[in-house]
Design brief:
Elements: E1 2-4, E2 8-14, E3 20-26, E4 29-41, E5 44-49, E6 52-57, E7 60-65, E8 68-74, E9 76-78
């Protein structure tokens, strides 16, 4: 699955072995990309990068640091990159 916010791209992918990954980057800036393990939740996905949390729920992604919300952005579903 792939999503876009105003200035970010998010891709969720699962390996053949079933491991789920969240990959996020600023649009058009592949050098900013970060891949992290993710877990499917009852209503979306959650990924951790150190003290940062990225949670997809419905049509939003919420970014938190140490449990404190830093941002919440609307997601648009897009075709998965190949």
């Amino acid at each position: 699955m792939a999503y876009r916010t105003q200035d970010k791209q998010i891709t969720l992918c699962r390996t053949v072995a079933g491991k789920l990954y969240y990959y996020g980057e600023f649009t058009g800036r592949a050098d900013t990309g970060v891949a992290m393990s993710a877990t499917q939740t009852a209503d979306g996905f959650i990924a951790y990068n150190g003290d940062y949390t990225y949670e997809i729920s419905g049509s939003t992604v919420t970014i938190s640091l140490d449990g404190r919300q830093l941002g919440r952005e609307k997601l648009t579903r897009v075709d998965s990159p190949s």
